[in-house]
Amino acid sequence: MPAPGELTFAAPRGAKPPRHLADLSAADRREAVAELGEKPFRANQLSRHYFGRLSADPAEWTDIPAASRDRLAEALLPDLMSVVRHVSCDGDTTRKTLWKLFDGTLVESVLMRYPDRVTMCISSQAGCGMNCPFCATGQAGLTRNLSTAEIVEQIAAGMRDLRAGALGGPAEAPESTPGGPTRLNNVVFMGMGEPLANYNRVLAAIRRLTDPAPDGFGLSQRGITVSTVGLVPAMHRLADEGLSVRLALSLHAPDDELRDTLVPVNTRWKVSEVLDAAWTYAEKSNRRVSIEYALIKDINDQAWRADLLGRKLKNHRVHVNLIPLNPTPGSKWTASRPEDEREFVRRLEAHGVPVTVRDTRGQEIDGACGQLAAAG
């Protein structure tokens, strides 16, 4: 991968990302290797280096003949992205990365270390087509879907950086630390884009993240969260996949009148339909659904809306994440007053609904929820 700031050739916009090992199933990898004139078992060796050892450097593949390494790397491990810059905050425990993809498209991801875990927030699209007015990504519009490998490579890069000591790394977190200093615990599809609008590639990426070595990174499905604004057919489709990943529904309003404005896709699938799809997913996956709710001053933080939300959610397998609105350039909206936030929490708890106010990690580097805009 090129060093930060290094100039790289950009393919024309509209070009298809080059084929990468992470785009392929285990069977497809063996076929691709055979097409190169190599023995099919080389696919397992190559997968073990990429997914198990996090190595994309042919010089490190000592179990593969030297004459085969460059050919395999060129055909199946092309450079997909380069670092434009890293910016950090929160005492260097949060780092946002701006990536330039092979065609010059820009996307962002955020790596966060907590005392007991490491979380990475990744992008599934460049931009977003959902047009939510309080979200910087949504206001930027959609550029294109990311390939499976472009999604996966964000994770691979984060893992490599953690191993090398990013965010404090091994020096501050001994091997006995839960999750280990070089291992991600959680991956959240909450970066740029609507994951379920790039369904096939996101699903394939989840397989690569969770398949055991050598086919994938071997992360727990329970450590994966997929967010959606409420694409109901895709939510039902995901419920039928037999996964145990967590579904996070970006609701932001309990009533159709307001949600039509805050989450424009609500004009297609109403609150009742979206919640019904969420309960179906909860039942089939045996996982609680997370309800994401950005608290916006005098817009959606009224006590009566908290009561309405509580009535709709009570007695369901659910947890509410309240998110103090993160500021975005030019926005007329801001976070709720502390007293209104406290009352919103109290009303939800009175209905027996579990609720947490989310930590606003990354706000000062525009790396928090709703702030990713991939500005060059």
TrEMBL record:
Its annotated compartments are: Cytoplasm
UniProt xrefs under CDD domains: Radical_SAM (cd01335)
Keywords, ordered alphabetically:
4Fe-4S, Cytoplasm, Disulfide bond, Iron, Iron-sulfur, Metal-binding, Methyltransferase, rRNA processing, S-adenosyl-L-methionine, Transferase, tRNA processing
Q: What class of enzyme is it?
A: transferase
Q: Which GO terms describe its biological process?
A: rRNA base methylation; tRNA methylation
Q: What is its main location?
A: cytoplasm
Q: What is this protein called?
A: Probable dual-specificity RNA methyltransferase RlmN
Q: Which organism is it from?
A: Peterkaempfera bronchialis
User: Source organism lineage?
Assistant: Bacteria, Bacillati, Actinomycetota, Actinomycetes, Kitasatosporales
Q: Which gene encodes it?
A: rlmN
